[in-house]
Amino acid sequence: MENTKITRVTIDELKELQSIGKQTFFETFAENNTAENIQQYLEEAFSLERLENECKSEDSEFYFVWWHTKIVGYLKLNTGMSQTELKDEKAIEIERIYVLKEFHGKKIGQIVYDWAHTIALQKNANYIWLGVWEKNERAIRFYEKNGFVLFDQHIFKLGEEKQIDFMMKKKLS
Hints:
Layout: E1 4-8, H1 14-29, H2 35-45, H3 48-56, E2 60-67, E3 70-78, E4 91-99, H4 108-122, E5 127-133, H5 137-145, E6 149-158, E7 161-171
Parallel strand pairs: 4-5
Antiparallel strand pairs: 1-2, 2-3, 3-4, 5-7, 6-7
């Protein structure tokens, strides 16, 4: 899409990453979860120390999604030991793909997914996988539309609550 670009996040952009991460997660999940659990997750998952460690990992990559000069979303990909579950050297995990709510419906999520798919092909991955909350029907439909299939489930801890994430994957070969 015209006026959209994707750039790799640098260590100097951690505050921007923290800001977009917190905002998009809150917009996506606050309505269906307790304020306490959301707050606890935001503090833990988006601490500057944690984001710095993740950015420095050679097996994790963060990308900003820009609309003109505004960051409107981001992507986090994991390979190797940075994957949250499978740790398969021939797989890439999409751990996070988020777009600001005001930009939903503008095909930006598709652009970001296509970017991740291209990276997976460049890295000769056999498949892409991800976890998606069982109650996030919009995201599940999006991934199914892009060829992902359910293959398992796991527990995702949001604050003090244990939730079910569907694990989905798409073969690339």
